[in-house]
Amino acid sequence: MNDWIYKGKPISEIPKGIFGFIYIIRNNITGRQYIGKKQFLSNRSKKIPGKKNRKHTILPSDWLLYWSSSDGLKKDITLLGQENFNREIIRLCPTKRDLTFREIEEQIKNDVLTALLPDGSRAYYNENIMSRWFVQPKETIQKMSESAIKLWKDPKHREKQKQKSQSEEVKKKHSKRRII
Predict the structure, then answer these.
(1) Are 64 and 105 found together in one domain?
(2) Core vs surface per residue 136-162: b (16+ CB within 10 A) or e
């Protein structure tokens, strides 16, 4: 089993005052990587029969055995073996807020959604950032573009869209502004 490495040394104990960590897992064969986060402790709640409130407990997470939530990475680990991957902790975080912020920061800084390896393949296994920005395969983007161009070239479709945007219902909907 590959240990978690932090500052060049294996780590197997939870550091005091630390909530979680940002990590990078490297595929030593292909060069692909994954950047993610993991909590050292997990909060669990259990329903107690006859009671309204749940019982809350804090338990150690499975961080020592953890190999990421990425399906693509897990598939490669199964195919190539754990010995062909390195797990490195790149930052320790004292709070949940800091953990989430630092994960996003590292993912954006490393351009995980669009970076490519020299052979043209994707450099990172990451397919989204906070489940919000998805990487579309080139074929999907091409099909979407072709479909949109085909629709816009159709004069009937353009006229229909123009009428739709000028309808009273649409104007009413867009004129109502919510102030929060």
Answers:
(1) yes
(2) eeeeeeeeeeeeeeeeeeeeeeeeeee
Q: Half-sphere exposure (CA, 13 Å, Cβ side) for 129?
A: 17
Residue holding tokens 């195919």? 79
For the segment 31-52, what is each residue's pLDDT rounded down to a tens digit? 999 999 999 988 788 888 888 8
Q: How far apart are CA 92 and CA 106, in angstroms?
A: 13
Which amino acid, one-letter code, is at 5?
I
Q: Are residues 66 and 15 in the same domain?
A: yes
In a domain, 180, yes or no: no
pLDDT digits (tens, 9 = 90+) for 103-140: 999 999 998 988 888 888 889 999 888 877 655 566 65
pTM reported for the whole predicted model: 0.69
Task: For residues 170 and 173, give the distance between their C-alpha atoms in angstroms, rounded to a whole number.
Answer: 5
